[in-house]
Backbone:
């Protein structure tokens, strides 16, 4: 039996948010993927979206509608520009999603719902990230855990502590069960995650700057297209989320929306 449809989200701002239904969101492709390991069909993220909500603990202030594509093919008969929406895979490739390892975690001294983590993402010093997970995960599940981090977001002040990134987590429809996304064993902190085949690592594009991610609403455009399969593997459309060691997953939340 499949678990209730759930949504996936990042851990950083401690707020319950839902994706915008604004008509200004680009009409990105809606696809279904297969689970290569089991041969089963995962639940469509569209079906999950009807019953699930998104917990977004993010370092951006809000989840806003994505802007229309800025690029234009040319001008029509009436002089209007025809905008071309890029494939969601191209947009997602601008996100700097990395393997991380929590080296230290503690309760935020000024916010009851926030943890503070120092996370190794392959840089000279660990990043400080605030995560609104106190009501969902015991602190021992954070300490020394391997995580997935969105690294190219603008830092945000969280009750006096600057949060520099987001942890990715999954929530069921009732928001009672939350799980962190987990990189496969053998993944190295700092490695950039990609979507697609095993050899896709060599074709990754350069990540956008934090200012570009915010200005172009890149995360908000990609979020609705992320999901999990019925074996809890994370997908972008039909493309699994990968590190060099294998696919990214959660433990038990199936047929979930990923963000």
Residues:
């Amino acid at each position: 039996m499949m678990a209730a449809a759930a949504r996936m989200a990042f851990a950083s701002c401690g707020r319950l948010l839902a994706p915008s239904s604004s008509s200004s969101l680009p009409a990105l492709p809606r696809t279904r993927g297969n689970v290569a390991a089991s041969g089963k069909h995962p639940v469509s993220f569209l079906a999950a979206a009807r019953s699930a909500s998104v917990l977004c603990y993010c370092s951006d202030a809000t989840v806003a509608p994505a802007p229309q594509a800025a690029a234009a093919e040319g001008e029509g008969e009436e002089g209007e520009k025809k905008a071309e929406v890029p494939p969601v895979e191209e947009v997602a490739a601008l996100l700097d999603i990395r393997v991380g390892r929590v080296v230290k975690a503690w309760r935020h001294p000024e916010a009851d719902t926030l943890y503070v983590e120092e996370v190794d993402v392959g840089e000279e010093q660990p990043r400080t990230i605030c995560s609104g997970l106190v009501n969902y995960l015991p602190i021992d599940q954070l300490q020394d855990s391997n995580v997935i981090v969105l690294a190219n977001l603008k830092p945000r002040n969280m009750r006096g502590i600057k949060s520099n990134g987001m942890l990715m987590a999954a929530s069921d429809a009732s928001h009672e069960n939350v799980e962190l996304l987990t990189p496969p064993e053998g993944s190295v902190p700092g490695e950039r995650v990609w979507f697609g085949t095993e050899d896709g690592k060599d074709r990754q594009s350069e990540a956008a700057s934090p200012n570009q991610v915010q200005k172009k609403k890149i995360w908000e455009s990609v979020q609705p297209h992320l999901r999990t399969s019925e074996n809890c593997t994370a997908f972008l459309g039909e493309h699994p989320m990968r590190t060099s060691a294998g696919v990214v997953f959660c433990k038990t939340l199936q047929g979930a929306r990923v963000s």
